[in-house]
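PROTEIN ENTRY
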Amino acid sequence: MAWGYVGGRGQYWTDRAAAALPAGVGEAWLGGHFEVVELIVVPACRRRGVAGALLRALLARTASSRALLSVDDTNTAARSLYRSMGWELLGSYGSAMSIMGIDLRRATGQAGSSR
């Protein structure tokens, strides 16, 4: 399962991410971005490309030029997947979470490449 929505100022996660990101980063990335809220694959189906396929399908349907998500710092499998798809670390969110983003205009052969 994967879902998200277009984020903007005044929304819970967007406002908290703006406060957590380094100066300038929030202004460049937040507002009109696609926010990946959840990406869940049942354990029996993990490590088979399902998460990547879900994420690519989800992002292919957005008109946003940027996408962001938060990920638990201890979730090495998820962080590795996102990095392999071109996501970059933007900053910390709380004590054990990171905010990652991808510029869908620059993503080639990965999520958002149909733009």
User: Anything to note?
Assistant: The first strand starts at residue 2 and ends at 6. The chain has one domain: 2-103.
